[in-house]
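Researcher: I'm comparing several assemblies side by side, and this is the next one on my list. It has 468 residues spread over six chains. Same procedure as the others: predict the full complex and return the structure.
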Amino acid sequence: MEWTLDKNRPISPQLCEKLAVMISVGECKPNERLMSVREVALSAGVNPNTVQKSYEELERKGLIYSVRGSGWFVNSDITVANDLVNDLIKEKTKVFFEDMVKLGLDPGKIKKYVEEW
Amino acid sequence: MEWTLDKNRPISPQLCEKLAVMISVGECKPNERLMSVREVALSAGVNPNTVQKSYEELERKGLIYSVRGSGWFVNSDITVANDLVNDLIKEKTKVFFEDMVKLGLDPGKIKKYVEEW
Amino acid sequence: MEWTLDKNRPISPQLCEKLAVMISVGECKPNERLMSVREVALSAGVNPNTVQKSYEELERKGLIYSVRGSGWFVNSDITVANDLVNDLIKEKTKVFFEDMVKLGLDPGKIKKYVEEW
Amino acid sequence: MEWTLDKNRPISPQLCEKLAVMISVGECKPNERLMSVREVALSAGVNPNTVQKSYEELERKGLIYSVRGSGWFVNSDITVANDLVNDLIKEKTKVFFEDMVKLGLDPGKIKKYVEEW
DNA sequence: GTGGTCTAGACCACT
DNA sequence: GTGGTCTAGACCACC
């Protein structure tokens, strides 16, 4: 499992994003069991508390639910996951364009710049 | 003077970026005096210490220099400023595309998505 | 822990020098945890912000690194620390001899003077 | 006239030291007129106020005296100047050795180190 | 007036 | 508990 975490940013929201995407694209099916907190912590090299916090955050947002003694499971309705991912995409794109403008690039240059990628 | 600071991100680097752009685009000419620490603090609505920190960071990077009792001045060589701004553009673009990929968008979709803007 | 700070000079660089020496002579081994910002502040009788500033300076120079929520650690490569200490020695010696010359002492007198110590 | 000022240290005391040495070694004889404030300021590239402050400091210490409308003059008794310079030499030497010890050099190494110069 | 440094105290995110 | 950031306010030296 690849986590590609950016250590300069808070870990917890990064884990949330990654898990939301996994659910949204169907890498984890509805009602399927997710990796245990310990497994994620070990494979991602982070503190179990941080993973726990992420899972709780996703539960609060309605993407997953927990069953005492057996683990965390994907919610049967993945609409929330899709919405969350779409919001993230929009938000990050918005911030990106704002940043580019702040850095002195006009829309034309940005478009040209992006196309080079 | 418009500072348009994002309160969700640390202020100090935001000031650095803004000042670097101003120098890079020639809004502040070489050897010209910059706004005083206190002036920036007042107009941006932040603490003088935060501005001081930003100025020191820019000094460390070779964009500006200080004269005791007189103020901060733009370095005669603005190459560093240009490089810094270009690096920022590249870095932010890189992070943006990585984020998009992490969020499940393939290059084609990203391009389409960007063009809508 | 003895800090022997000279209150006539800025504290921050003095802390940097002291810490660099500790690392250089092996009083703090590579990847070992340093005293926390608060501990140093308490034992040295200075403000935590001042210690924080020193640690950041040493991080910038590549002697140490920080782990959020866990502490500051000595870099695995202590070459930089050794270099920094050697540079300090050379610089201070150079300034000392220049000062002596400025004060009217010729090399012969300086040597004689130093040997008396 | 060579002033060799270190811009990282306060200008005023540096000027005092330099002038004291000039008087002590007889470069300026007793009751001789010193360079005017303006001349010093111009040749040293500093603010006239700073020079004025240095002259006043030296007057307070009894090295020189001023005559309204005609300038500053070396005191007939240069004992004070000699004492001041000797004190400076002792003080700087003391600080130098303390610094070397702080940087991890034992007395033996310091001696060896100094002799190489 | 200016920059340079420090203290005090607060809040946040992460472990 | 830890580091990271910021605010508020003070004092100094220099111009």
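Model: For your comparison table: Chain A has a mean pLDDT of 86.
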